Amino acid sequence: MKKYVWWSSAMVVALVVGAFLLGKFVFPSEKLPALPASELSEGQRGELGIDKNINEATIDQYLHRSDAVYRDMRMLKDPGNYSSIGGDSYLTGFVDGFEVVPFPYIVNVTGLPESVGETYTGKTLFTNKDGEYVANYEESLDMLEALFPKDKAIFLMCGGGGYSGMMKNLLVTLGWDESKIYDVGGYWFYEGNNNIEVKRVRADGSVVYDFYKVPYHDILFDELTRK
User: Helix H segments across the chain?
Assistant: First the structure.
């Protein structure tokens, strides 16, 4: 009986050591390639804040990283007239891996092209007062840190690049590391292999939007504590 117990213990030790060595040498820890430095594009795209190295044309190379989060800043249906600038007020699709956090819910929107008109004007986590972001709720900053963790790279996208550039500016102003935030531009210009369609045309020609596909972060303002 003692011999049987001794051999059983030895086998357990061998299995543990074997599993460790297998994990160490056969399945090593994930080693992700370094991200290129955040660098503005030239011209108008740079003025919007769109990155030169990681953008609509290259984002497929940087998807699904464990050291990053991916945020699409559009609303499901934006009140602004984005068709006036060649876009769409509806979220017609998104890049796989991105999760939607509507920028107009984060802070009041300013600086849109005149033809777009007025976008959402309801409750927001912050108010932009001459470039200073003032929290409207006790939970505002905590929510921002949960949605945009400081210890990870942050990839921002929207329709044409405006909302994501504004979001990057807000985060940097509030203390986020600018070198870890990438405005990757606009979904309207994305032609990669990770597109998830939301807009669908029925057999009768009518259009529907399958918003159930969208990983969406809602902000329930009525459950927050107003300052």
Answer: 2-21, 43-48, 103-106, 140-147, 162-173
